[in-house]
Write a structure and sequence with these properties.
The complex is a heterodimer of chains A (about 170) and B (about 500). By secondary structure, chain A is mainly alpha-helical. Chain A has two domains: about 80 residues; about 80 residues, no CATH class. Helices cover about 70% and strands about 5% of the residues of chain A. In chain A, the strands form two sheets. Chain A has a two-stranded antiparallel ribbon with strand order 1-4. A two-stranded antiparallel ribbon of chain A has the order 2-3. The relative contact order of chain A is 0.11. The N terminus of chain A is likely disordered. The longest helix of chain B has about 35 residues. The relative contact order of chain B is 0.18. Classes of the chains: A mainly alpha (about 170), B mainly alpha (about 500).
Amino acid sequence: MSSNEEAEGSPLVSYRTLDIAVAIFFLIVAAIVITDSLRLGIAWKPNEGPQPGLFPFYIVVAMGIASLVNLAQALPRTPEGERTATTIPGIKRMAAIFVPAVLFVLATNYIGIYVSAAIYIGTFMVFFGKFPVWKALAVSLGIAIVNFMMFEVWFLVPLPKGPLEAALGY
Amino acid sequence: MDELNALFGGFAVALSAYHIMLMVIGITLGVVIGVLPGLGGANGVAILLPLTFSMPPTSAIILLTSIYWGALFGGAITSILFNIPGEPWSVATTFDGHPMAQNGKADEALVGAFTASFVGAIFAVCLITFLAPVVAKFALKFGPAEFFAVQFLTFASFIGMGRGSAFKTVASMCLGFALASVGLDGVTGTLRMTFGQDELLNGFKFLVAVIGLFGIGEILCSMEDGLKFNGATAKLRMDAVIRTWKQLPGMWLTFLRSCIVGCWMGITPGGATPASFMGYGIAKRLSKRGDNFGKGELEGVVAPETAAHAAGTAALLPMLTLGIPGSPTAAVLLGGLLIWGLQPGPLLFVEQPDFVWGLIASMYLGNVVGLIMVLTCVPFFAAILRVPFSIIAPAIVFVCAIGAFTVNNAMFDVWLMLAFGVLGYLFNKLRYPLPPLVLALVLGDQAESSFRQAMLVSQGNVGVFWSNWLCGSIMTLGLVMAFWPALQALRVKLSGNGAVARAA
């Protein structure tokens, strides 16, 4: 996990920047929840008990305080914080799996989960794994078909399907 | 000896051909899940949970717990052969396990680890057999205030026993609570934090969060490191079993210590991960051969494995009797119980004796079946890691998407899973602990409603939590736990700045 000391490739983000960003993310969440809690009411009503906003309000106030401390601890420039968290090649490799994953989920809406998964696995194998096309085809189709059998046929769990499955009568 | 009678009744339930088959399937799946990086016990069980909705609860829980045992065994395989801990609690196993594999003693390390897991688990199951009904009877006296006290202690011990920044633990836990509060408020029926979005009506489902945080998050981390699997080939000859077993009786004291540490950590929700580190640490300090630890000592594999499995198993005790899970996987199983319409807690023993005793009997059987299976199948399981990562990674994303979709049959959840994946990656990177978030997401609603009920009963007087010795002592312990890091820091300051707190 901390193997980026030897920082292959050019550094992109330091731990300090990342820590600050996440602390700010927490503070934004806290602000959103506090706004809605205040709308719901955080008061104590006699005979009725706490209003629905009370519990989330105090929980999120605690979260806000903890995040402020985290932010304060992240702000000073320390050698620890200046270490590289992510390199450009690192983020590229992550994008190589994540961006296609987003496309895969998007495609699921139109062509069903099995077809898009087969395309996803196959293209990833060809472009990232440098597999020959026939191997990628065999593996990706195999995985898709095994899952199709498992979910649609044996366990009867309906998953998103597209025109191809419809043509096959499912 | 009511327990023994009930247990034999349980064996009668668990010992059907169908259930044995489920155990074999479950353990196989579990080992596969444990071996694959990016899939752990918690999310493995989570992904497969929807498949069990149509089964009778007893069969379903047997399948899921078998997956759990399998995952516990499987985590050790990758730790030893490839120095990749498949599970957080296998990290301590790598310290001596991998050096042993490099010295050509992979077979002994594997057999040692499996046997140790088995011993730890059986010890904890015995404890459950004889203690569970007692704890359950005792727990029947629990009211909302006591429940909140126990839940408070659970969350507080994460802060007290967590390693790393206490503030990050608090932030992560509160985020879980905040996410849990989204949707319909169970007490008043008002909509909270939905901002007019229909998709948020049901709130955030913990399964979706778990699959995203652990599954997708792990994949992103592995991709970033450009992870390559190149491990020593495991040659498991059957005489390795006998060779290793000859050495084990000499370590009975280590076994016993790790069992006790593990059970304690499992029941108080410290969990398997701290238990494994604690077991390793204690053995290193007290063993005669402690100096050799880290260079490939069998005892260094046995100690953390025994503790981790004792803890992993004992974690099911508070889940069954109090409805409070002692580990992330137990939290997922708890979610399953609720979905099957079983209310975990003290009444489960009265209302569903078949289920409870069938489950306990299946723990004995599942571990025996598991031990036999893993001892014979190791070379085959190790072959999984020869599958290139460029096949495994997209396949895992695919399986995760299936898991997230099946929760509500909603594509929205799949998008949510991707978002949680990014969050999981960031948390992992910045050492925000994930278990508190997951636990708060699962228990948030319950903790909130017991808090509100207790407050209603007492008309807003916080003193209700100290109204009797039981509740009061749990609450006080909880407060001590919550402020433990602060107390620790104070002590270090008082005893002079020279002394630096040593990590256990």
